[in-house]
């Protein structure tokens, strides 16, 4: 019986992830930016970080500097960000949003707020005890996935 429940949990999580992916695609289909999720998160971090450069973005986004360099080059080409050097430090390259990039950032913030409001309403339909069980399950699942990711890095 326990094995059957574990299989059902796996199936329901897989179904949830698939539906979440479809929902995200559907909710973004009318946006004409042609940006990946990593590009959108890079834009978000450029706006939020103080003096964003490749190293800071890589550390914040848990990516390689090479990966960030590819993303920022694409964003510059698509005119969502610009790069610049500060006076007195001609070596380090920093980034800022263009007006087009700011539009993406503001929409991303609005989307996150709407999603949070929508989901908080759903979460409130559970009792406090149910919420604690879900939270414990998610914390343990996240820890398990983090451990599996670390094994892949080794």
From TrEMBL:
Q: Which SUPFAM superfamilies match?
A: Winged helix' DNA-binding domain
Keyword annotations for this protein, in alphabetical order, are: DNA-binding, Transcription, Transcription regulation
Q: Where is the HTH marR-type domain?
A: 1-143
- Gene3D superfamilies given for it? Winged helix-like DNA-binding domain superfamily/Winged helix DNA-binding domain
Q: Looking at the record's lineage, which domain of life comes first?
A: Bacteria
Q: Where is the signal peptide?
A: none
Instruction: Give a yes or no for keyword Lipid metabolism in this entry.
Output: no
Which protein are we looking at? Answer: MarR family transcriptional regulator
Biological source species: Psychrilyobacter piezotolerans
């Amino acid at each position: 019986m326990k094995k059957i429940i574990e299989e059902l949990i796996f199936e329901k999580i897989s179904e949830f992830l698939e539906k979440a992916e479809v929902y995200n695609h559907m909710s973004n289909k009318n946006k004409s930016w042609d940006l990946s999720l990593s590009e959108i998160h890079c834009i978000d971090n450029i706006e939020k970080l103080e003096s964003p450069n490749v190293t800071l973005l890589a550390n914040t986004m848990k990516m390689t500097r090479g990966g960030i360099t590819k993303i920022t080059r694409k964003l510059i080409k698509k005119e969502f960000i610009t790069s610049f050097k500060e006076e007195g430090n001609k070596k380090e390259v920093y980034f800022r949003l263009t007006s087009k990039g700011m539009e993406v950032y503001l929409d991303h913030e609005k989307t996150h707020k709407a999603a949070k409001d929508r989901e908080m309403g759903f979460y409130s339909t559970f009792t406090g005890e149910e919420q604690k069980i879900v939270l414990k399950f998610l914390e343990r699942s996240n820890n398990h996935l983090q451990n599996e990711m670390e094994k892949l890095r080794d």
